[in-house]
């Protein structure tokens, strides 16, 4: 699909994963190519930035990367 357009790092990993899970829950067609297979692969991913980037490069198009980036940037940082 598309090369990622922003870095997924440990600091924004949970926000990115949460956004993707929300898309799976609310849009049966997301991502547009192979949504069932994409969801199955996502569920098997280790929770690492590298794994999520590789998954996204396989399944997300440019528009979906931009939407993910916007959602992550709009998420307040976790308190820790």
Descriptors for this entry?
single chain, 80 residues, mainly alpha, 60% helix, globular
Q: DSSP helix count?
A: 4
Distance between the termini: 35 Å
Radius of gyration, rounded? 12 Å
The major pleated sheet works out as: none
Instruction: List the uncertain runs.
Output: none
> Helix/strand/pairing class, anyone?
mainly alpha
List the secondary-structure elements in sequence, H or E: HHHH
Percent in helix: 55-70%
Mean pLDDT: 89
Shape: globular
Note the quaternary state here: single chain
Number of strands: 0
Q: What number of structural domains do the residues give?
A: 1
Strand residue content: under 5%
Describe this structure in words.
With 80 residues, the protein is mainly α. It has one domain (13-74). 60% of the residues lie in helices and 0% in strands. The chain has helices spanning 13-26, 35-44, 49-59, 62-74. Helix 1 (13-26) packs across helix 4 (62-74). The protein is globular, with a radius of gyration of 12 Å. 16% of the residues are buried. The model has no long low-confidence stretch (mean pLDDT 89).
Briefly summarize what is shown.
This protein is mostly helical and 80 residues long. 60% of the residues lie in helices and 0% in strands.
How are the SSEs ordered, and which strands pair?
Elements: H1 13-26, H2 35-44, H3 49-59, H4 62-74
């Amino acid at each position: 699909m598309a090369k990622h357009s922003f870095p997924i790092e440990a600091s924004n990993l949970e926000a990115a994963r949460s956004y993707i899970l929300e898309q799976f829950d609310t849009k049966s067609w997301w991502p547009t190519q192979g949504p069932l297979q994409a969801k199955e692969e996502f569920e098997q991913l280790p929770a690492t930035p590298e794994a999520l980037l590789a998954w996204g490069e396989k399944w997300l198009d440019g528009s979906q990367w931009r939407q993910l980036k916007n959602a992550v940037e709009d998420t307040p940082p976790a308190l820790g």
